[in-house]
């Protein structure tokens, strides 16, 4: 059971004072904890996670639509970059959410990728709890403060761009070759494994990247390879390529 004082600390992180504290307690309760503690009467957080996911997407979508004059595809990619699990787990760390989660002993011992997934889901559940307790405006304020604040980083680093698709498009256009991705090394136990992947055109390695999954490492390798493409190639029109977002001009 999470002590009430600890939840007060979490409320300070969120800048929210709950009228119904049980909503916050539910948002922090993982299914595994109830399996180990069958006498606990609170439900697990999966329904709140479902609700919070929708509130998060709406708040991010509304901000992107009203702020940036971009086509639908680019807005979709930006939204996906903001609400993806890796970004949500980073938000969880700013809230110190891990210390408040109700987990089974087994889940508590696992601090790898599975924990990051649980933390990301818990962020959505907390957003759902704020929405039910305080209303949409309070939930939107939380999303703008802690999720939308990562948008400049996403745009500057091109995290919303599918680097593999872009590299393949340019490689076929300029060199008539299709990139091949090869795992160069794997290290660490399964729950915290790190992959290093090379992006090749023929026998030449154009880029290299690392990640906690092969897919993540391939994207990093593709971004590295894109950095080597000549300015002439980067300037070639390409469908689906990321564009510089320009703020929508608001009417006075």
Structure write-up:
The chain contains 13 helices and 3 strands; from the N terminus they run αααααααααααβββαα. With 252 residues, the chain is mainly alpha-helical. It folds into 2 domains: 4-157, Ribonuclease iii, N-terminal Endonuclease Domain, Chain A, CATH 1.10.1520; 163-234, Double Stranded RNA Binding Domain, CATH 3.30.160. It has a 3-stranded antiparallel β-sheet with strand order 1-2-3, covered by helices on one side. Strand 2 (194-201) and strand 3 (204-211) form a beta hairpin. The N and C termini lie far apart (51 Å).
Helix content: 55-70%
Q: Provide the spatial order of strands within the biggest beta sheet.
A: 1-2-3
H-E string: HHHHHHHHHHHEEEHH
What is the name of the CATH class of the largest domain? Answer: Mainly Alpha
Work out the oligomeric state of the chains in this entry.
single chain
User: How many DSSP helices?
Assistant: 13
Give me some keywords for this one.
disordered N terminus, 2 domains, about 10% strand, three-stranded antiparallel β-sheet, about 250 residues, Ribonuclease iii, N-terminal Endonuclease Domain, Chain A, disordered C terminus, single chain, mainly alpha, 13 helices, Double Stranded RNA Binding Domain
Topology:
Blueprint: H1 4-14, H2 21-27, H3 31-36, H4 46-67, H5 72-83, H6 85-94, H7 105-109, H8 113-134, H9 136-146, H10 151-157, H11 163-175, E1 180-187, E2 194-201, E3 204-211, H12 214-226, H13 231-234
Antiparallel strand pairs: 1-2, 2-3
Helix pairs in contact: 2-8, 4-5, 4-8, 4-9, 6-8, 8-9, 11-12
């Amino acid at each position: 059971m999470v002590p009430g004082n600890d939840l007060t600390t979490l409320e300070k992180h969120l800048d929210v004072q709950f009228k119904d504290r049980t909503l916050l307690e539910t948002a922090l309760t993982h299914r595994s904890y109830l399996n180990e503690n069958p006498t606990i009467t609170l439900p697990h957080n999966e329904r709140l996670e479902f609700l919070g996911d929708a509130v998060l997407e709406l708040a991010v979508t509304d901000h992107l639509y009203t702020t940036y004059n971009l086509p639908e595809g680019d807005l979709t990619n930006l939204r996906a970059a903001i609400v993806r699990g890796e970004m949500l787990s980073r938000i969880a760390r700013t809230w110190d959410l891990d210390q408040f989660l109700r987990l089974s002993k087994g889940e508590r011992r696992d601090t790898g990728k599975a924990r990051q997934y649980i933390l990301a889901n818990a962020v959505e559940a907390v957003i759902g709890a704020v929405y039910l307790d305080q209303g949409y405006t309070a939930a939107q304020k939380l999303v703008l403060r802690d999720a939308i604040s990562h948008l400049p980083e996403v745009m500057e680093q091109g995290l919303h761009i599918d680097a593999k698709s872009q590299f393949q498009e340019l490689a076929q256009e300029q060199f008539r070759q299709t990139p091949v991705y090869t795992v160069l090394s794997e290290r660490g136990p399964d729950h915290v494994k790190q992959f290093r992947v090379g992006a090749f055109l023929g026998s030449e390695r154009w880029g290299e990247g690392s990640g906690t999954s092969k897919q993540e490492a391939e994207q990093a390798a593709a971004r590295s390879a894109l950095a080597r493409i000549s300015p002439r190639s980067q300037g070639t029109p390409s469908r689906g390529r990321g564009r510089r977002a320009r703020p929508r001009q608001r009417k006075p």
